[in-house]
Specification:
By secondary structure, the protein is α+β, with helices and mostly antiparallel strands. It folds into two domains: 20-182, no CATH class; 268-378, no CATH class. Helices cover 42% and strands 15% of the residues. It is built from 16 helices and 13 strands. The protein has helices at 5-15, 26-32, 43-51, 57-65, 84-103, 106-109, 115-119, 122-128, 135-146, 150-160, 191-209, 214-221, 225-234, 292-295, 333-351, 363-366; strands spanning 36-37, 69-73, 79-83, 133-134, 163-166, 179-182, 239-242, 250-253, 268-270, 305-308, 311-319, 322-327, 373-378. The strands form four sheets. A five-stranded antiparallel β-sheet has the order 9-10-11-12-13. Strands 1-3-2 form a three-stranded antiparallel β-sheet. Strands 4-6-5 form a three-stranded antiparallel β-sheet. A hairpin with a 5-residue loop joins strand 2 (69-73) and strand 3 (79-83). Helix 5 (84-103) crosses helix 11 (191-209), helix 9 (135-146) packs across helix 10 and helix 12 (214-221) crosses helix 13. The relative contact order is 0.14.
Length: 379
């Protein structure tokens, strides 16, 4: 039996807790959905608001504070919030990719320093970051060794060193300047540790986003093809091949299920950089191809989106005393009613913390969206 495009979309939404909000502990919710994109401090909070029943932001504040959930540079060389127990294997899986992204980058190589020069600092850095330090404090610490190159050395190290972001307060736990804290992860990953981490990450990815292809997993992680092929081969007894609408081979966990095609998909207001928009190759299974340039901008900004019947149908932004909903297509009364109800709840959710969340990205709305209808829901 071949799965339809809608079933694949529904499978992702189901596994991402977007078909029904579930009553879960926040750390368990993060583990179940693999990872939360955390490039914007508010996004993990809004992602969980969409997924966890009766979610209150103080629960995530506490999980960050007591390090049950940690924020670090991982998949796609971007910031993610992950379950603390998953950080070390994920870091081991990603370490070679993280190192190469910085140590082979011209911004580092132009200094004339070598990777060994940067690596030599790791033991000292681990001790210095035994308590939270700002980037400026780290740069000051290493200036004596690297002089004018201290900024670029730290730029490289903060990406691949075994360290995560320490909460600094503010409405969403993390603000400027960023603070960093050493983790217990090894500064180097043995080949078998990296392979084990890749296997665990692949299982978590399929549990959260499957069925999916090897190319999809590469898109989500930026891991190299040989690493992915090895993980697939070593997990062959836990995986099954799934037929989809195209010719690309799809894989899934043997015990996983897929919703039927007539399963309803409720409206949701997804945050910026929501993982569901970034977890698959091509236009993404919930992003219509014609809308992808509107929601994923050329510089990588991925806008907060309207999810209608399992597909992206527009964008939203917080405005004074409310939420503005912008649809890329004509929507029926029932769809608007559901979106407005979500917007009212969202407005109440952010009111006490950051009523105009994502305000710095308003310039995308200033440029306008073609062929739209908009509604502003006041709180």
């Amino acid at each position: 039996m071949s799965l339809t495009a809608r079933q694949l979309a529904l499978a992702t939404l189901d596994r991402q807790l977007l078909l029904e909000r579930r009553r879960l502990d926040v750390a368990e919710a993060v583990r179940r959905i693999c990872a939360l994109q955390a490039q914007a401090p508010a996004s993990p909070y809004l992602a969980l608001w969409n997924r966890v029943r009766d979610f209150v932001p103080e629960d995530l504040d506490g999980a960050f504070a007591d390090r049950r959930i940690v924020k670090a540079t991982l998949m796609r060389i971007t910031l993610h919030a992950v379950h603390a127990e998953d950080y070390e294997p994920y870091h081991a899986a990603m370490l070679n990719t993280l190192r190469a992204s910085r140590l082979y980058d011209r911004r580092f190589t132009s200094t004339g320093l070598t990777s060994a020069d940067a690596d030599a600092l790791l033991p000292e850095l681990a001790g210095f970051l035994a308590q939270p330090r700002t980037g400026a404090e780290v740069e000051e610490k290493v200036t004596g060794q690297f002089g004018e190159h201290a900024h670029r050395v730290w730029w490289a190290l903060r990406t691949y060193a075994p360290a995560y972001h320490a909460p600094t307060g503010g409405p969403w736990s993390f603000g400027q300047p960023n603070a960093y804290l050493s983790s217990s992860a090894a500064p180097e990953a043995e080949p078998e540790e990296a392979a084990a981490g890749a296997r665990l990450l692949l299982i978590a990815y399929l549990r959260a986003f499957g069925p999916a292809s090897a190319q999809d997993f590469a898109r989500f992680t930026m891991l190299k093809r040989p690493v992915i092929i090895r993980a697939l081969q070593e997990l062959h007894d836990r995986l099954v091949r799934v037929a989809g609408p195209g010719r690309t081979a799809l894989f899934d966990l043997a015990e996983a299920t897929v919703p039927t095609e007539d399963t309803p998909a409720p409206p949701r207001l997804l945050p910026m950089w929501d993982s569901t928009l970034l977890a698959h190759g091509g236009p993404g299974r919930i992003v219509p191809e014609e809308y992808r340039p509107l929601v994923v901008r050329r510089n990588g900004d991925t806008l907060p989106c309207l999810l209608v019947d399992g597909q992206i149908a527009g964008v939203w932004r917080a405005v004074d005393n409310g939420v503005e909903l912008t649809a890329f297509q004509r929507l029926g009364k029932a769809a608007w009613r559901g979106l407005k109800e979500e917007a009212e709840r969202l407005s109440a959710f952010i009111a006490g913390r950051d009523p105009v969340v994502y305000r710095r990205y308003g310039h995308w709305w200033d440029k306008g969206f073609p062929g739209v209808e908009s509604v502003t829901v006041r709180s």
